[in-house]
């Protein structure tokens, strides 16, 4: 009977031991945490109000939870210091102060980026205005060159028209034409042979 009781109690003992050991094991894992949005949190040297106060932490401070006991959590802060705070004063999400700091950093970054984009936009607008002005000047120069080309074309046509109207040029042309005609005319008219010249 006693052996039967002992054999049935032993497994129950091991099961209960495992059930108590697992939560204790999970509570001793180090977990990043934050001090809740209370103004000031008092640090105690042990898990309870009866332990002396060893310091304070501001809201939003980043800490590491080491373990829990009697409604208190042991935390590590400033890299190597430890203390105990109420478990309700810990949060596993950043507090409002930390979120505000992140939002301010994001806002500053976005404002800087916006200023850079505005500066780039102003530079591009300046370049566009410069290119537009250069294009307008080139179009004006092209219009001037077109007018000059038309004027030179008219002057050349007038010069060619008046060239043949000058007396010396006209006389020289008639002289050359007459000389050529005089040289070519004997070749064109055949000579009649006189057959009784030697008789």
TrEMBL record:
**Bilayer-crossing regions:** 168-189
Extract the coiled-coil ranges from the record.
100-162
Q: Which InterPro entries match?
A: SH3-like_bac-type, SH3_dom_pro
How is it placed in the membrane, per its record? Answer: Single-pass membrane protein
Q: Where is the signal peptide?
A: 1-26
- Keyword Transmembrane helix on this protein? yes
Matches recorded under Pfam families: SH3_3 (PF08239)
Keywords, A to Z, come to:
Coiled coil, Membrane, Signal, Transmembrane, Transmembrane helix
Q: What is its main location?
A: membrane
| Domain named SH3b: residues | 30-94
**Cited Gene3D superfamilies:** SH3 Domains
Q: Subcellular location, in the record's words?
A: Membrane
> Sorted alphabetically, which NCBIfam families does this protein's record hold?
SH3_and_anchor
The protein depicted here goes by the name: Signal transduction protein
